[in-house]
User: Fold this.
Amino acid sequence: MKFLKLQQVMDKTTLCRSSIYNLIKAGEFPENVTVMGKRKAWLESEVEDWMMEKVESEQHRPLNLV
Assistant:
């Protein structure tokens, strides 16, 4: 299990800080967890699962040929 800091999540997903927090607020991105009392971090596995879901949903999206 590996924790990611915000910058690492931003680098991995190519999302900006505000997009990450907006997606969390909408319930569409993994929430961060408190580590060592007050530091916030994300589980790398949850972020990677979210990324895989996005890739898979794009692959199954019908093409708009019009």
Summary: The radius of gyration is 14 Å. The chain has one domain: 3-59. The mean pLDDT is 92. Residues 44-59 form the longest helix (16 residues).
